[in-house]
Each structure stands twice: as C-alpha cells, then as structure tokens.
C-alpha cells in the first residue's frame, strides 16, 4: 500500500494540532515544518475542517486546532476521507471492473484481505497515539518552526 502525500500531510497537520493543543497552529507552521507549498496545506486544512476534525479560525491571528479530542480522531477514518476508496486493483470497483475472474480470483481475494488488515491496524490508531511521544516530536519540530519559510514548489 502506498498513501498519497496529501494523506500523509493531513495526518501530520492533525498531529501538529494535537501537539500544540489547545493553542492554534498557523498554516505557516505546517509549511515550515514540512517544507510544502502553502496552497497544499490550505487545501488540506480546509478539507479536515469540512470533515469536522479541525476548527479553523480566520484572520490575522487565525489558524487551526483540533475540533474534537485527539483520542477520538481515528487514523483509518481520516485516510478514508483523504484517500477515497481503497481500490487497490480495478476488480475492487464493481462499477468499473472488466476482469472476467471477479469472484473466483484468489489474488484479488488475498489483496482484499491484505487491504482490510492494513486498514484494521490504522483503525486502531488515533491522533492521540501518533502524538503520544510529544516531547520527542516537539524537540524535533521546534527548530523547524523557528526557521524562515523556504518551500520547494
């Protein structure tokens, strides 16, 4: 399985919000830490806000924070929003499948089980879990947050 960068940075943004809770996190802080283009982070934060994971505050002193406790935000659920359906092969999508082996193929059945196992592990993880080593994470992030913004496009 391979997740998109979009999902990775969505989880990193939630993690950063958990680390700084209840304070607001600025989009520019995420940009500095992960060296991303600001529009990418703005899009991610907007989607996470629409999904009810983040509270966003507009304006000069704005930013974002978790909209609910980190222990209630399940990593697997976030990934289902940011990744969409986990159609690992074409035969996973009944509407677009053209494979004549659907239903009898042991390969696709194995991939379905593997995908379910992958998601089951992530369904057991919360944002609180991925932010639980708070001091270590903050000590690594703090110097990056203080650096001037340099982003590769």
Spans where pLDDT lies below 50 across 5 or more residues: none
User: Could you name the CATH homologous superfamily?
Assistant: Winged helix-like DNA-binding domain superfamily/Winged helix DNA-binding domain
Q: Major beta sheet, specifics?
A: 2 strands, antiparallel
- Strand pairing plus helix content: what structural class? mainly alpha
**CATH class bucket:** Mainly Alpha
What is the 3D form? Answer: elongated
Number of domains: 1
Strand elements, count? 2
From the 3D structure, determine the CATH topology.
Arc Repressor Mutant, subunit A
Strand order of the largest sheet: 1-2
CATH architecture: Orthogonal Bundle
Mean pLDDT score:
88
**Range of strand content:** 5-15%
Number of helices: 7
H/E order of the elements?
A: HHHEEHHHH
Binned, the helix content reads 40-55%
Distance between the termini: 26 Å
| Alpha-carbon Rg, integer | 18 Å
Name some characteristics of this structure.
Arc Repressor Mutant, subunit A, two-stranded antiparallel sheet, elongated, mainly alpha, 7 helices, 2 strands
């Amino acid at each position: 399985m391979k997740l998109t960068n979009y999902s990775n940075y969505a989880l990193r943004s939630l993690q950063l919000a958990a680390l700084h809770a209840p304070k607001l996190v600025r989009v520019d802080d995420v940009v500095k830490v992960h060296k991303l283009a600001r529009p990418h982070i703005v899009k991610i934060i907007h989607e996470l806000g629409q999904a009810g994971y983040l509270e966003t505050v507009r304006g000069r002193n704005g930013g974002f924070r978790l909209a609910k406790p980190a222990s209630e935000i399940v990593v697997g659920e976030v990934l289902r929003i940011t990744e969409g359906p986990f159609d690992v092969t074409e035969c996973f999508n009944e509407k677009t499948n053209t494979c004549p082996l659907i239903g009898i193929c042991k390969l696709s059945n194995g991939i379905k089980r593997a995908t379910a196992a992958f998601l089951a592990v992530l369904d057991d993880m919360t944002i609180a879990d991925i932010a639980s080593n708070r001091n270590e994470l903050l000590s690594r992030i703090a110097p990056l947050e203080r650096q001037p913004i340099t982003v590769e496009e």
